[in-house]
């Protein structure tokens, strides 16, 4: 029986091409190749473009880096709007590199020791840059007596410190002559790591003017570890906020920024305005001696008794002033304002250390 197979024109052409190529391969010569299979005539080579520099030789594009040292365009931290973090200008510390005092232990015993009067004491002085967010509040369940949890209102403040360097180091100027018997010193800037040992104190006031004695109350910072996860989740879950216990353990390198948090509890709800004192931002200090108390201390020591303290040491601290517009019944963080009407928002003060 004859079978009729219909082949389309396209299929027939494809089959013919395959058969032609097979015959040409068997022949082993170029004569059997079709014109379509012959290679095209070689064209003159075009001029080669200038070779590009290897990728390794190209200078890497500089990426914007934030103050924290991370790439700003790909930061994992929460982006804060302008004005959220309040910067505090640095205090003038050039005058703190030298303190002129009498050597009380010598002058009070022998008045002929004139060389022990007005003696300059030189020291290195550094300062950290300080920025902070306004004081906020958060409710936290805090362990109480008998193992029960008690809900308390925790006041806290988030801040950051930066080591910008420029530690002032007094160096004797050998090219200068003595000035009134004293050597002449010049200041040089040194960049070195420092350690921040923070001390935060909140002073709560009940009145704006004519404050009555005893109306102000001092609240020392309180380490509340159970409140730190809540604060971190609220502020920035990806950022590490060091407590006042953890901060002194870290040495802040040059150009490094470290974030921290301070907490208080049991704040008097009747406060109208309050101040936060920040100590440890600089190592500048002063002291004051009382010669009469020193003599009394010597007399007490002879009788093996404890005499009065004749020396007072003062450290430079930052005072931040806040104003609260609410009452004692409803406490909300949006009632707190940075700055007090008729007063400076901040000022550098001297606080007694001991």
Give descriptors for this structure.
Immunoglobulin-like; 4 helices; mainly beta; five-stranded antiparallel beta sheet; disordered N terminus; seven-stranded antiparallel beta sheet; 12% helix; 354 residues
How would you characterize this protein structure?
By secondary structure, the protein is mainly beta. The strands form five sheets. Strands 10, 11, 14, 15, 16, 17 and 18 form a seven-stranded antiparallel sheet that branches. Strands 1, 4, 5, 6 and 13 form a five-stranded antiparallel sheet that branches. Strands 2-3 form a two-stranded antiparallel sheet. It is globular. The protein contains four helices and 18 strands. A hairpin with a 5-residue loop joins strand 5 and strand 6.
Give the SSE layout.
Layout: H1 9-27, E1 86-88, E2 98-101, H2 104-107, E3 119-122, E4 129-132, E5 136-143, E6 149-162, E7 167-172, E8 185-190, E9 194-195, E10 199-205, E11 217-220, H3 228-235, E12 251-252, E13 257-265, E14 273-279, E15 285-289, H4 291-302, E16 311-324, E17 336-338, E18 346-352
Antiparallel strand pairs: 1-4, 2-3, 4-6, 5-6, 6-13, 7-8, 9-12, 10-11, 10-14, 14-16, 15-16, 16-17, 16-18
């Amino acid at each position: 029986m004859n079978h009729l197979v219909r082949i389309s024109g396209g299929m027939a052409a494809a089959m013919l091409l395959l058969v032609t190529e097979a015959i040409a391969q068997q022949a082993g010569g170029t004569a059997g190749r079709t014109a379509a299979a012959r290679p095209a005539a070689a064209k003159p080579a075009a001029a080669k473009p200038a070779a590009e520099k290897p990728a390794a030789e190209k200078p890497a594009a500089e990426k914007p880096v934030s103050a924290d040292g991370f790439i700003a365009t790909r930061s994992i931290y929460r982006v804060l709007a302008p004005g959220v973090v309040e910067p505090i200008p640095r205090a003038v510390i050039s005058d703190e590199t030298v303190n002129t005092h009498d050597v009380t232990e010598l002058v009070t015993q022998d008045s002929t020791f004139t060389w022990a009067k007005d003696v300059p004491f030189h020291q290195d002085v550094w300062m950290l840059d300080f920025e902070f967010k306004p004081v906020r509040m958060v409710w936290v369940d805090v362990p109480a007596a008998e193992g029960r949890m008690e809900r308390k209102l925790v006041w806290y403040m988030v801040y950051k410190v930066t080591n910008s360097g420029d530690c002032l180091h007094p160096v004797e100027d050998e090219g200068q002559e003595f000035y009134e018997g004293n050597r002449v010193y010049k200041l040089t800037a040194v960049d070195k790591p420092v350690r921040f040992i923070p001390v935060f104190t909140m002073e709560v006031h009940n009145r704006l003017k004519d404050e009555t004695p005893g109306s102000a109350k001092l609240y020392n910072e309180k380490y509340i570890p159970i409140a730190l996860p809540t604060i971190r989740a609220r502020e920035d879950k990806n950022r590490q906020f060091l407590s006042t216990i953890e901060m002194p353990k870290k040495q802040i390198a040059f150009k490094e920024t470290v974030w921290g948090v301070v907490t208080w509890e049991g704040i008097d709800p009747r406060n109208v305005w309050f101040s936060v004192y920040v100590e440890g931002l600089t190592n500048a200090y002063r002291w004051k001696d009382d010669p009469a108390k020193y003599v009394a201390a010597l007399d007490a020591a002879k009788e093996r008794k404890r005499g009065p303290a004749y020396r007072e040491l003062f450290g430079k601290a930052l005072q931040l002033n806040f104003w609260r517009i609410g009452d004692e019944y409803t406490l909300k963080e949006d009632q707190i304002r940075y700055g007090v009407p008729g007063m400076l928002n901040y000022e550098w003060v001297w606080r007694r250390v001991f």
